[in-house]
Amino acid sequence: MRRFVSMLLAISVITMLFHPAHTQAEDKKDSIAPTAPSAILMEKNSGMTLYDKEADKELPPASMTKIMTLLLIMEELEKENISLEEKVRISEHAASMGGSQIFLEAGEEMTVEDLLKGIAVASGNDASVAMAERIAGSEDEFVKMMNDKVKDLGLKHTHFENPNGLPHDNHYSTARDMAVMARELLMHEAITDYTSIYDDYLRKGEKNEFWLVNTNKLIKNYPGMDGLKTGFTNKAKYCLTASAKKGDLHMIAVVMGAEKPKERNEAVTNLLDFGFGQYEGVKLYSKDEILHSMENSRGMPKDLPLVPEKDVMILKKKNEEKAKYKTSVTLNESVDLPIKKGEHLGWVTISNGKEEISKVRLEASEPVNKANLLELWQRSFRNLTGFEKF
């Protein structure tokens, strides 16, 4: 019996020697967001996931849906299909939206910028539908655009039925998918001019002046927070996709399904504190650094330098040495002329062994037009004769 007890003790000691660090790390990780049914922490610049808990569980996103709505609005602004100064006429349908709203009236006209504020700050369901109708012609067509964008982003666990997050059985997403959408939205840097507003006014000085107050109270209480979107319905409970900047780091924290707003805010705060406290950013390439040159035999100029759309960053634990990373470049299969400056033409991928650490778009550093017939003839002559100049 004594020998048996001694053997058990020996096994216990060996087990403790091999597993204590893992157990302590797991315990610490589990304590970050203990009350959140689903959560994730992602760093925006690198795209690295630093924490996840049931992050692929399909849940109703409530008004966090508006992250996709805002993304499509920002893309339309970038394409110059709409402008901030343009006035949008409000339909009966848009004005009829319940839930959180900015109390639009049918026939009223409001600028795109004010509607953008109404969505980003006050989570206006009516403003979301008004912009959906302006961009796509109808709410249904805009929802198709939303789901097409879901596919473009490679999201497997998201489907939208409306642009505002009002309850629907077939309207769902995940913490991970919401973080990817948030990262894509934050690529449009101007969005934080709106999502970081704590309070503002619509129709200022008029009879129906409306006071906007941000539904994300952490905007005022957490240093560096610049968005993004809260959500609540009885089924979804309390949700929040939050982003905050500190130095070179830009964290995205998503919490879904919290029972109380206090629990949601506490979980988000803990996630952000964990990210900023444990990690630091390392810049591998500047956004102005030429990483590849694309040749187009029919373009003018013929060789186009490609640069990353933003600084290429990776994260490492503080006080740890930087690992060795591999950089690879992939280009789009087909490119049509002309090419605009800033057009996305490929990807630069950073990997650590088999693991992908960061992926950043490559873009054109200058415009490329179609070469004229004289230039094409001269190129053909040089190729045939070997003369560099003609």
TrEMBL record:
InterPro entries listed in its UniProt record: Beta-lactam/transpept-like, Peniciliin-bd_prot_C_sf, Peptidase_S11, Peptidase_S11_C, Peptidase_S11_C_sf, Peptidase_S11_N
Cross-referenced SUPFAM superfamilies: beta-lactamase/transpeptidase-like (SSF56601), Penicillin-binding protein associated domain (SSF69189)
Signal peptide positions (record): 1-25
Record family assignment: Belongs to the peptidase S11 family.
UniProt-recorded Gene Ontology molecular function terms: carboxypeptidase activity
Presence of keyword Mitochondrion: no
Listed name of the protein: serine-type D-Ala-D-Ala carboxypeptidase
Coiled coil: 67-94
Pfam families hit by this protein: PBP5_C, Peptidase_S11
Pathway the protein acts in: Cell wall biogenesis; peptidoglycan biosynthesis
UniProt keyword terms in alphabetical order: Carboxypeptidase, Cell shape, Cell wall biogenesis/degradation, Coiled coil, Hydrolase, Peptidoglycan synthesis, Protease, Signal
Stretches assigned to the Peptidase S11 D-Ala-D-Ala carboxypeptidase A C-terminal domain: 279-370
Listed EC numbers: 3.4.16.4
Top-level taxon in the UniProt lineage: Bacteria
The UniProt record lists the keyword Chloroplast: no
Function: Removes C-terminal D-alanyl residues from sugar-peptide cell wall precursors.
Record field: catalytic activity: Preferential cleavage: (Ac)2-L-Lys-D-Ala-|-D-Ala. Also transpeptidation of peptidyl-alanyl moieties that are N-acyl substituents of D-alanine
